[in-house]
Amino acid sequence: MSVDLTDLDAAGLDLAISDGVATVTLSRPQRRNAMTPAMWQGLARIPGKLSADVRVVVVTGQGPSFCAGIDLRMFTAEGVPGEGRALSPADPGFDDEVAGYQAGFRWLRDPSFVSIAAVRGHAIGAGFQLALACDLRVLADDAQLCMKEPALGLVPDLTGTKPLVDIVGLPRAIELCLTARTIDATEAERLRLAERVVPAADLDRAVAELATALMTTDAAAARATKALLGNAPRRSLAEQAAAERAAQAKLLQARSPDRQVPST
Ligand code: ACO
Predict the structure, then answer these.
(1) Which atom of ligand 1 is the closest one to the Cα of 124?
(2) Which domains, ranges and CATH numbers included, belong to the chain?
(3) Is the dihedral of CA 27, 29, 35, 38 positive or negative?
(4) Which atom of ligand 1 lies at the shortest distance from residue 122's CA?
(5) What pLDDT does residue 84 have?
(6) How far apart are the CA of 31 and the centre of ligand 1, in A?
(7) For residue 201, how far is its CA from the centre of ligand 1 (angstroms)?
(8) For the ranges 23-37, 76-90, 237-251, which has the lowest average pLDDT?
(9) Which of 32, 62, 132, 149 should be mutated for ligand 1, with most atoms under 8 A from CB?
């Protein structure tokens, strides 16, 4: 099946799908992959272009930076050519518009696949939030993460606050956001913001190895397990135990009778 990618190209995005791995690349390296609303809307269209056999989605950036956050020209009088200025709450449909931007980040939690942010260089503001929107993060040792929004008089509103709190805890999330300080890869790993840190030259290989390892497990079991794990934090133990039973029954019922569970 051929997929029309011309709309993504116009949004500064590239999508490549091979052997069950979809790679989404922010492709505006001359601006350090700075993001615009068109890019967020383009990201939101990607799940509609993925085939059912995709099990891993890698999000990465072209050039030396993962992403330098929102295109700061959005805040100038001239705006970004072809896109204009940042929306104002006075504009009609402000809430719906921002929800549409957030959709570009939220799909990365879909249980159909595991999403991995491959981060080299800067991940600032919206770029840090994009890395947080992924299930896993592999960082090059030159990675630098910063939640810059409060320093610019903004809140982080591209879905980053919840995963940040979930990962680092509330006190550290407050400290990171309200100082807007930059953390390096070593500290990011210590704060559990990176599953792995590797030399920059090894980033692509490390991500490919992780993708391969993630695809060694049974596809249906992997999808059901990710859904189970994703819902665990908001359930009681009893609720989660019931959910495990239900998921197991559904998984086994869907399996053809001649497909045996491997013995250990
Ligand atoms: N918006 C628009 N253009 C950008 C952005 C951005 N966010 N970031 C970088 N660029 C452009 C620069 O203007 C420069 O353009 P030019 O070559 O025409 O002068 C080019 O990208 C390269 O940037 P440099 O600053 O020269 O690259 P350097 O490697 O020295 O620094 C860094 C990279 C640290 C990312 C720096 O560019 C930077 O601080 N950018 C702004 C980061 C920021 O504050 N983002 C907003 C966060 S808040 C949010 O996302 C809601």
Answers:
(1) 47
(2) 8-215 (3.90.226.10), 219-254 (no CATH)
(3) negative
(4) 35
(5) 87
(6) 6
(7) 23
(8) 76-90
(9) 32
pLDDT at residue 1, as a whole number: 46
**Shortest-distance Cα residue to atom 32 of ligand 1:** 68
Helices (H), 134-216: 161-168, 170-179, 185-190, 203-214
List all residues 6 or more positions away from 93 whose beta carbon is below 8 Å from its beta carbon. none
Q: Which residues line ligand 1 (CB under 6 A)?
A: 31-32, 34, 65, 68-73, 122, 124-126, 148-149, 152, 154
Q: Tens digits of per-residue pLDDT, 183-209? A: 999 999 999 999 999 999 999 999 999
Average pLDDT over residues 67-74: 97
Q: pTM value? A: 0.96
Among 71-75, 89-93, 242-246, 250-254, whose mean pLDDT is lowest?
89-93
Tell me, in angstroms, the distance from the centre of ligand 1 to residue 68's CA.
6
User: Taking residues 251-264, what's their average pLDDT?
Assistant: 76
User: How far does the centroid of ligand 1 lie from the alpha carbon of residue 65, in Å?
Assistant: 9
Residue 95 dihedral angles phi and psi, to the nearest 5° = -65, -45
SS3 108: helix
